What does this fold into?
Amino acid sequence: MSANKKIYAAADFGRYHRGEMSAAEMHAVERAALHDPFVADALEGYSFTEKPEEDIADLEQRLAMVHTPVINITRNINLWWKIAAVVILMGGLGYFGYQFSTNEKELRIAENTVKDPEESMITQDSVKDILEDQNSPEGNETERIAQTRLESARKSASQAASQAKSREDVSAAVSVKMRSEAEQKSAKKTAPENMPYTLQGKVVNAEGMSLADASVSNTEDRLVTKTDNEGNYTLKATETEVQSEIQVIGYGTVKQKLEANLSNVVVVNADKNVINNNASMPNNAAKSSSQPVKMKKTINQAATPIGGMTLYKNYLKNNITKETDENGLQYIGIVKLRFDLDADGHPQNIKVIQSLCPACDKQAISLLKNGVPWTGATGKPYEIEVEF
Amino acid sequence: MESLSALYRPYMDITYGVCLKYLQNTDDAKDAVINIFEELVTKVKKYDIENFGGWLYRLAKNHCLMHLRSNKKYPKTVELPVMQLGDESHLEDVMEKEEHLDRMHDCIEQLNEDQKQAVQLFYLQNKCYKEIADTTGLDTGKVRSHIQNGRRNLKICMEAES
It folds into this structure.
């Protein structure tokens, strides 16, 4: 439908069906319908309502309400992100403060290393004196004196550290070093590079179409990633099997266990819920048909044709010939086939489990037989829908 | 969001018609129109759309078919219009060229009587379906079917002759 074509409205279709149009106007609508399936379908559709104008007025109101709450939700989400950022920042500051206080002793030692040579001599002398005094018979008295001297030395070291810029720099360096160590300790627990296992796979819809930009989260290690344009994702994990959550806009949320070293295919349904949990196959199944294939479900719509389901759907679409009945009307619908795979991945034992018409069934079987091989376990049943 | 709503609004009526055709229920069709808009909001960013109307039609139709499939209410046969937009435009161009008129005349003669009559009345005499139905005594559904099939056969014939 190009921009210069008339976009018909509900009132036009209503007038057509109520017979309020002139013959010339009706002819114009019919001619537009013959050239544009959008108009043709709409024209036919409006025969199912008696009050098209009222329906559209209702829809106008609903459409106006759709985008208002969405904007509010977005604002709320932004607000929550801000709150979360502040909490994380304060938590981080508290953690570093704690780390700083618990390492005060090391800091004092660091300060001592940058004292003035004279003060340093005093401290060393003091300590030497203490050691000597401790070995003397007047132990108790000398211990008290040593304590006093030690405190005095510590005080002077602290003052020197606060006055000398070079000391401040070193102190800051020590602080940074401590922070860095603290971060490394923390990172050892959660950093993806320290996680030994890799979860990977693909997110597809019920049609086998790859879904880009789907959010895949490893809920156990709190890691999240997005699928690429081909629907593929890669995620690190601390365990070989972790619980995950997959969110796709328009498809809802799916919870599924993902296993390391397998290609975890996640199938999501447009109707919010999962239709197939845990359909997994080895990463290299496509490379070698002799490789053992691990399938967790016996019926698996996510078994993949070589080249991917998107290409395969295109193959079907490009090679299907529309079938018509005796009145010349086209059949529209699906033929559902069940099959298993031979050792080379070719479909065999094909059975029609949902028929559309005899010729349609025959054509669907022929397309499946003559298509590319599939990756999947030998002898296990799979299903595919061929759309007419 | 507001701009997408403004983009969608002119097509909402026609989209509602498509949903009505497939779902055959005003409540379901209304829900579908809103759901399609929400789907559009997410999908419109991902695709380089040259023809918004054509893209929206495909989105709406797929949405309805998915809905039907999930509810297992898919009809066995649905009377379908000819879908090949590009081919139809091509046919239109061909029909308008004077040098092809003779060939077209021959092809029209090769159509069966019902298709020939319907095509002639619709294209050459600019009659609407109802007028053709009144003239021929057929119902309008049959008239439309004869015109659609006649167009397809004409196209095949014209391409074969060229």
